[in-house]
Amino acid sequence: MNKLSSKYGRYSLLMHFIIWFLILSQILRISFFIWQYNEVSWNIIDLLRTLITGLFFDFGTVAFISICSVSYYTVMPNKWIGSFVDKILIYFFTSLTVFILVFTFFAELTFWDEFKTRFNFIAVDYLIYTHEVVANIQQSYPLPVLIGGVLLLTFVFLFIFYKRGAFTAAFTSKASLKTRLSVLLSTSGIALIFGFFITNNQAEWSSNRYNSEISKSGIYSFFAAFRNNQMKYVDFYTSIPNDKAFGIIKKKLADPYSSDFRNDYSIHRKVTDRIPSLENKNVVFILVESLSGSFLKEFGNKENITPFLDSLAQKSIFFENLYATGTRTVRGMEAVTLCIPPTPGQSIVKRPDNQNLYTVCSIFKSRKYDCNFFYGGYGYFDNMNAYFGGNGFNIYDRGRGSVLSDEIKTVRNNINDNEVTFENAWGICDEDIFNKMLKVADSQYKTGKSFFNFVMTTSNHRPFTYPSGKIDIPSGTSREGAVKYTDFALKELFRKAQTKPWFKNTVFVIIADHCASSAGKDEIDVANYHIPAFIVNLHENQNQKIAQQCSQIDLWPTLFSLFHWDYESDFFGKNVLDSQFEQRALMGTYRKLVLMKKDKVMILSDQKKQAFYSWNKEDNSLKSLPIDHSFLEETISWYQTADFLFTNKLLQ
After folding, report:
1. Cα 131 to chain centroid, rounded
2. pLDDT tens for residues 271-312?
3. For strand 282-288 and strand 506-512, is the pairing parallel, antiparallel, or unpaired?
4. What is the rounded distance in angstroms from the CA atom of residue 278 to the CA atom of residue 394?
C-alpha cells in the first residue's frame, strides 16, 4: 500500500479518483492548447492563467461528482466497511463513474473538433435529441473501436487504483465521525460555493476566445448551459429606458411609405409601395444547412465545390455582403421567419409561447398562399414542427414518432419510404427533399393555389454522407464533399423545375442558415457569419449583385419590395435596395449580441458588459476602441426592444 493510500485510509480511493480527474482534465486542456497552437496566446502569463483557471473549475466539478460517494462514506457504518455489499457498491459505482468520465473526455474531443468550444447549450440540445445524435455518432465514428477504447482505458485506470492499494485501504480502514463530517462538510461547501457564487463565464478572462474556452471545465460548462439557456435581456445586459430604446429603433425602421407605429412599445406598421403589386408569384424558399460564404468561388474559394451556385450568382439578385444572425439552424429559421435580431439565450424557435406569431407566413396567408415547411429529418428535432406548425405552415417530414409533443396546429404529412433514395442520421438527402417539394408543388399548381414552400436541407452536416456517384468526392469523407453534393442537388432541382408549368411564375430564394463554423480567437468571429443569399427567377433586368452590408432579417423585406407588396409588418428587417438603407448586420451567440456597421463592431455580453472594436476584413481581426456611446445605445435598442416584444407577447 503506497503512502497516499495509507494516509487517507477509507478515503484513499476517493483521493486517487480526484487526483486522476484533475490530471486527466489538465492533459485534455493542454491537448486543446496544442490543437489550436496557432490561435491561442502562448504568453507565459496567459498559459499559466489558463491552466490555473481550469484547475479551479475542475475542483468545483470534481466536488459535484464526488458528493454522492462522500455521502455514502459518511453514512456507511464502520462495522460494514469491507463487507460484500460495501465492495460491490464501491467497485460498481467507481467503475461506472470512471467509464462515464473517460467517455465524456472523448466526447469533449469530438465536440471541440466540431465547434471549437467546451460543452455548451448545443451539447444540452443534443442530449435531448438522442436518435439523431446517436445515429450521427454511429455514422461518423467507429463506435466499436471508441467503446472498446473507453472500456480499455477504464480498466487501466481502475487497475492503477488497485495496484496503488486504493481499494484495499478503502475496504480495510475505519473513519471517525469527525473525519466523515469534515470531508462531507468540505465537499458540500465547495459544491455550494460553485453552485451559488461561481459562474461559468468567470472563466472567460481572456480577450483570446480560445484561451477562455480552454480555461473552462467541459462538464461544468454543460450544466451551466443547461441551467442558463434562456436569459431575460434586462437581467443580464446593459439596458436603457424602453421609451428611449423604442424611439431609437423607430427612427431606424421608419420610412416615408410606412404608416405610423401602432403604439409607443410597438414596431407594427403598414409598409406600402408606390408601384402596383405584381401578381402573386409562387415562392420556393431554401434554407441551406451550413453554407458558408467561404465555400463559394465568388468569395475566393479555389476548390470549385459550388459551381452551380457560383453560376447562379451571375444571373440572380445576389447578396454579396450578408451576415447570419447566429450559429445554429434555429437562429437562421428565427431570422428568416420573424425578421428579428437574435434574442439572448435560446432561439425563439425553441422557446415557450412561440406560436401564433406574426411571421412571413402571416403575409403569405393574407394573400391566400398555401404555406408548407419541408424537412428531410424528423421535425420534432429542435422544436421545428411545433414552431412552424404553430405559425401557419403545413408540415412535410419523415414523421417518426416522438415522446416530445409537437403541438402541430396545421396538417402534418409524412415523407414515405418509397420517396427516399438515401438517408442518414439527420434525414433524407437533398435531392429527395427537393423531389418531394416538386411533387407537392405540382399538386398545388393543379388546384390553382399560389404556394410558399419552405425547404430546410440536411446533407451538409456531419457525417457528410450522400448518394454515391453523384459528384467526384466520395461520400462521408469531408465537408467539402457535402457542400458539393448540396450544390449538385440544387442544380438538379432547377433542371427539373424548369420543366414545370409553374416555373415561370415562381421565385426561388436560397440562403444559408449559418456558417459551417463560428469559432475564432476573438469574442466574435465576424467572417464566420458571412453567408450567401440569392433571389432567382425574377425578371432578368432586376438581377444584380448587392454590395450593401446587411442581415438575414433583411431578405424578406427586400423581396416584398421587389414584389411591390403592401403588407403589415412587425419586422426589424429593411429593404436593402432602398436608397435610404443604413448598412448594418446583427449577429450573436446565445450570450453575445453584436451590431456591426461597416467595420465597427459593438458586442454586448451578459454581466452587463460591452466592448467596441474595429474589424479588419483582410485578416478577420478585431482591434479594441473606446466605447462610442451613441453606437452603444443603438446596439442596446435593437436587442432590448426585440426581447421586450417577444417576452411581452407583442409579436402576435
Report:
1. 18
2. 988 888 778 999 999 999 999 999 999 999 999 999 999 999
3. parallel
4. 25
